[in-house]
Amino acid sequence: xxxxxxxxxxxxxxxxxxxxxxxxxxxxxxxxxxxxxxxxxxxxxxxxxxxxxxxxxxxxxxxxxxxxxxxxxxxxxxxxxxxxxxxxxxxxxxxxxxxxxxxxxxxxxxxxxxxxxxxxxxxxxxxxxxxxxxxxxxxxxxxxxxxxxxxxxxxxxxxxxxxxxxxxxxxxxxxxxxxxxxxxxxxxxxxxxx
Length: 194
Fold this sequence. Notes:
By secondary structure, the chain is mainly α.
């Protein structure tokens, strides 16, 4: 044990006795005073929506709306293509990647975000791409930047995302059950059969 077998209650008691001995204040009084000092030092930034003004906020919302409409349109078109390609699983994966390349590029172009790509010389080799995305836009960037024929892995609940989930299933990408590790491993062996 890292704390020598003492319980959390005892560690707290020692901490409290340290504060009482060194400052003459209890833990609660010390915490209250430090929080009060911190609040007084920080300016209130939550009162302002954006420092650039209402015009840039409006433009951002318009761009996001256009991205959403673009994604829904391309998703609908590619879903129809995927339905026609039901008998050919590899071709559906390829078409799903083409959809991701097109949609990703369109979204980045609409938003006007600069993208810096490093390591492009390795893009033609077989690889495992691992990403932990922080926003929905990251998914489209990943699909845009990975080579055509790449198989994606996502949680099984992705099928419930409107249009995107259905296209994901039609593109024959993998869905894993995170609550069942054995089934998750078995579902990742599926592409070996192709």
